[in-house]
Specification:
single chain, about 160 residues, alpha/beta, Rossmann fold, globular, binds adenosine-5'-diphosphate
Length: about 160
């Protein structure tokens, strides 16, 4: 059984994240999504909101489980018997970040590998920040966030200003 973990903040979840999740779920027998809880990081959405948005976004995927944890990604992966961490890579800025994380994780435990997926072309420029900006400039986020979450995400970002 091949098990993978896809960790992230998902603040909020976007169709770029979902693109990676759907493709990884076809390759692995089981995919755990780890919604990171980091008290030192400032999120727009609460921990409960980030977890419940991800559950709604992935409810059509039978081999995907969503959990929230403040555990180190490597420890979470070990707990779940996962051997692969999935990450998405859009551009050079992601590259720098991802290769640092990859090297760090491998130096601690080389039995857990990292697989990088490039997003589909229409999600290449999509980020949680660009979703926030679209809302603040009064544009629709339909097509950028998973179905059923547009209203909730728009309302929350507007409220936060
Ligand atoms: P983190 O705080 O861990 O970077 P994010 O939620 O921003 O959390 O991202 C989680 C993962 O999803 C990262 O690997 C990131 O590069 C990737 N990602 C973010 N946006 C996209 C996108 N539009 N397409 C593909 N991957 C993405």
């Amino acid at each position: 059984m091949k098990i993978a973990v896809y960790p992230g903040s998902f603040d909020p979840v976007s169709n770029g994240h979902l693109d990676i999740i759907e493709r990884a779920s076809k390759v692995f027998d089981h995919l755990y999504i780890l919604v990171s809880l980091n008290p030192n990081k400032k999120y727009i959405f609460s921990d409960e909101e980030r977890l419940s948005m991800m559950k709604i976004a992935t409810k059509h995927l039978a081999n995907v489980t969503v959990e929230a944890s403040s555990n180190l990604v490597l420890n979470f992966a070990r707990e779940k018997k996962a051997t692969v961490i999935i990450r998405g890579l859009r551009n050079y800025f992601d590259y720098q970040n991802e290769i640092t994380l990859f090297t760090f994780n491998r130096s601690i435990d080389d039995s857990i590998d990292t697989f990088i997926l490039f997003p589909s072309a229409n999600n290449l420029f999509l980020s949680s920040t660009s979703i926030k900006e679209l809302v603040l400039f009064g544009a629709s986020i339909k097509g950028y966030v998973p179905e059923g979450l547009e209203a909730m995400i728009t309302e929350k970002i507007k409220k936060q200003g």
